[in-house]
Each structure stands twice: as structure tokens, then as C-alpha cells.
Amino acid sequence: MKRTLLALSLAALLPGIASADNVGGCGWGAKLFDGQKGIAPQVLAVTTNGTSGNQTFGISSGTSGCTQDGVVKSTWKTAAYVGVNMNKIALDMSRGHGESLDSLAQLLEVKPGDRQEFDSVLKDNFSKIFPSSEVTSEQVLSSLKTVLSENDALSGYAAKV
After folding, report:
1. For the chain, which residues make up each domain, given as ranges?
2. What's the pTM?
3. Taking CA 90 as the corner, what is the angle to CA 89 and CA 92, rounded to the nearest 5 degrees?
């Protein structure tokens, strides 16, 4: 019984897992919980979309706020890289250059013309991104996203964090 319930729960959530913004940005769940933050509204929106199949129908038909030209995005590579290399990234970021920072820029697809600004902004905001030695990779990623989004030249890269 427990396995069946777990399988049904996972099946209900799967349609929303690959979405760009956790709730997919469309479907009844996204509309019903629009603007709400936190785990509960996201889970409820995904569950609403997954159990009723309305997001799949919306994407197929272009209704319920869905479009057919969307792109599925994932930032797991960046998250994994930061999680494994936090000390190296912190050191390179504090200096404003280095191999770990180069790799991070490559993962975020930073254009060569934006690299100097990227390195400089991250160095200048090092204390915001790494506020303490106990900072978690999730906090680093969140702060990195915020710092990039606040810079006009680099804001486009924030979505890739």
C-alpha cells in the first residue's frame, strides 16, 4: 500500500519536475498559486498540474497560459559544480580570476565580451556571495543569482544559475 501511494505521488509530481520555474509557469496550478513563494505553493501548483493533466493539455493546445515554444532549462550542472568546488570558487572569486571562475563562467555560458565584467562583479560582491565560511552551496547559488540579476550587463546570466 505504501509503495503504491509513493508511486502515485511521484507520478503526480513528475510533469512539473522538468519545468523551468518549478511550477512550469503555466497550467491551472501556476495560475492558482501565482506569485506565492515557498515549498508549499510550488508543491500544490505542481500537484494541481500533474493530477489533472491540465499543464500537458495547455502546452499541447497553447491554452492555460502555456505556449508551445518554451524551453526546458536545468541548472543542475552549475549547482553540482558549485557544490563540489566551493572552496576553489571562493578563492578565485576573491582574486577576480582563476580556473574555477573560468569554469563557472563557461557553465553559465558567459560571452567572452562579458568575462571581464563577470570576474569584476563577482570579486566586488565576494562578501555577498560568500558571507561566511559556513555558507552552503544553495546560499552561494542564490546570492550569485541575485548579484548577477542586479547588474544590467550580466542579468541575462542569472537565469542560468
Report:
1. 2-61, 76-160
2. 0.58
3. 65
